[in-house]
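Budget justification aside, the reviewers requested a transparent look at the raw inputs and outputs of the sequence design task funded under Objective 1. We therefore reproduce one unedited record. The lines immediately below are the structure tokens for a 572-residue chain.
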């Protein structure tokens, strides 16, 4: 009986396992059939069902959802929202945890590669952003990283590739290896195609006498090449201006937009000759009438040379202001000292030569010569205010009035200081008061003095600072041989390095610094040579002697008693 019951239980268990196995097998078959509709390595459509933490849960119709890192969305500049449908890449149907493995990055890259591949096959351009300069060219982001060789960046060599970083550009794909992930671009090929298209259009409408606008493409000694739109024309230097010019760069610069006239067009060779001055009539035909000798006119400085400034009176008419005609008072070594290119100046017409197309102009003739009455305004012994205009090794030029400078020689700046350069006392642009020492109208020179405004402090210096006296001053300057100490404004004394200390001193900085307030002993005075010798060492010795004398002058004390209990008693 027990054997029969045991056998029955075993048969029931076997039937149960069979039923369960069949159910699981049917379930597995159902999922397998569902997954067979998808292949690993393909792009599928999914729907965002949840955004949690750093993951995005996506349902693509499998038995389980897949997760994609949130950063993949953020890198592409999108914000995932529940319910959005997106394209994802199926990397694996099941990982170690039984979840499908999805990737948005790979899906995006595959789509980009499809776009790049189609552009390569059709020869159409792609757009991308220049991200950095690399060896041999530029790296461009067109969805995938592409290489743009330096020779393919532009129609002409680009010297500064870094200037293109961050710019959006259009280029053609000239090489593609999808398996290796290599993309090579050419912006030059696209520009050449665009230029050819413009050239065909320009040639179809171009004719002699036509006025059009072009861009200065290149400048040479004999002219400028103008880009008219896919075709270049030559603007010869002789057709640039009715006036005389030395070089095309005096009028034009590369990149200028210029309106020109077509003088000649050869359809067979596609050569175009252009003119700029032909837009107007020759102004020199009536120049003598417009600018009679002695008249005053206003013009613009357009060019500077070593010998003068060229002033444009009107388009095509320029006159020369020679350096000798610029100022009554100043010896102008270069016109840039008085004028700059672009300045508006008033000039007087001195001479007109229509045949050679030359006009002589003067700037100083517009104003009266201030030196004619100079002695009436500036007499020796008078004090005057002026502005320091320029500093030289030998002195300072002080502007007393527009066009009149005086020379303040370095020897007339201070009674006391040995000045190495005027910049030790003065600054350019500084307002100062000086004394007129001498006026030479013929030589157009005025001598000025600064020290003469104050009495010579050295006349009484021996009385104020006798040898052996103690003085207080501030260190104002250090040299290799000592320190200069200002005792009063205009009176400096020298604290020689040998007078700094009893011990040897190699550099003054070991003992004193600029700005230190010191008490010193006067050891030497020479009003003729304007020198005062000071000593810190003598001061220390004097103090020591005083202390000794003071000690010797104290009342003595004597002892009484003995042992440790001795007491001192002062002597009467």
């Amino acid at each position: 009986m027990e054997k029969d019951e045991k056998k029955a239980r075993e048969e029931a268990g076997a039937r149960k396992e069979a039923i369960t196995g069949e159910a699981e097998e049917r379930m597995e078959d159902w999922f397998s059939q569902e997954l067979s509709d998808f292949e690993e390595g393909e792009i599928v459509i999914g729907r965002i069902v949840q955004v949690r933490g750093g993951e995005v849960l996506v349902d693509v119709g499998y038995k389980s959802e897949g997760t994609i890192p949130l950063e993949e969305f953020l890198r592409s500049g999108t914000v995932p929202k529940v319910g959005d449908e997106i394209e994802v890449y199926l990397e694996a149907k099941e990982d170690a945890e039984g979840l499908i493995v999805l990737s948005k990055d790979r899906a995006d890259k595959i789509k980009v590669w499809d776009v790049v591949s189609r552009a390569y096959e059709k020869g159409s351009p792609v757009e991308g952003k220049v991200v950095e300069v690399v060896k041999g060219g530029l790296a461009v982001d067109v969805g995938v990283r592409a290489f743009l060789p330096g020779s393919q960046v532009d129609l002409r060599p680009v010297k500064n590739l870094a200037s293109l970083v961050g710019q959006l550009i259009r280029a053609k794909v000239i090489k593609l290896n999808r398996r290796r992930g290599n993309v090579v671009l050419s912006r030059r090929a696209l520009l050449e195609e665009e230029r050819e298209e413009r050239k065909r259009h320009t040639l179809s409408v171009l004719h002699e006498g036509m006025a059009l606008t072009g861009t200065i493409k290149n400048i040479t000694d004999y002219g400028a090449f103008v880009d008219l739109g896919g075709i270049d024309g030559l603007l010869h230097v002789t057709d640039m201006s009715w006036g005389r010019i030395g070089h095309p760069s005096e009028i034009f610069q590369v990149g200028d937009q210029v309106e020109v006239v077509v003088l000649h067009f050869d359809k067979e060779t596609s050569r175009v000759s252009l003119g700029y001055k032909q837009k107007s009539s020759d102004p020199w035909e009536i120049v003598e009438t417009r600018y009679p000798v002695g008249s005053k006119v206003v013009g613009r400085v357009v060019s500077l040379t070593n010998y003068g400034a060229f002033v444009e009176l009107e388009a095509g008419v320029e006159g020369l202001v020679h350096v000798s005609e610029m100022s009554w008072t100043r010896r102008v070594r270069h016109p840039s000292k008085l004028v700059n290119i672009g300045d508006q100046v008033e000039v007087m017409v001195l001479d007109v030569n229509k045949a050679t197309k030359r006009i002589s102009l003067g700037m100083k003739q517009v104003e009266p010569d201030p030196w004619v009455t100079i002695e009436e305004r500036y007499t020796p012994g008078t004090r005057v205010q002026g502005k320091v205009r320029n500093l030289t090794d030998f002195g300072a030029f002080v502007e007393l009035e527009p066009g009149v400078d005086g020379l303040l020689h370095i020897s007339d700046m201070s009674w006391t200081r040995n000045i190495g350069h005027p910049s030790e006392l003065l600054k350019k642009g500084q307002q100062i008061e000086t004394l007129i020492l001498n006026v030479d109208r013929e030589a157009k020179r005025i001598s000025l003095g600064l020290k003469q405004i104050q009495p010579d402090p050295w006349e009484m210096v021996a009385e104020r600072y006798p040898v052996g006296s103690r003085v207080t001053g501030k260190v104002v300057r250090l040299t290799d041989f000592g320190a200069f100490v200002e005792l009063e404004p205009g009176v400096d004394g020298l604290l020689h390095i040998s007078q700094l200390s009893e011990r040897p001193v190699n550099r003054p900085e070991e003992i004193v610094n600029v700005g230190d307030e010191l008490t010193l002993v006067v050891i030497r005075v020479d009003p003729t040579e304007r020198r005062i010798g000071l000593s810190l060492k003598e001061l220390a010795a004097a103090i020591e002697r005083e202390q000794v004398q003071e000690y010797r002058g104290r009342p003595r004390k004597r002892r009484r008693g003995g042992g440790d209990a001795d007491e001192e008693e002062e002597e009467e």
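The radius of gyration is 48 Å. The helical segments are 2-35, 70-75, 104-122, 187-205, 287-290, 374-377, 461-464, 537-552. Computational costs for records of this kind are itemized in the attached budget.
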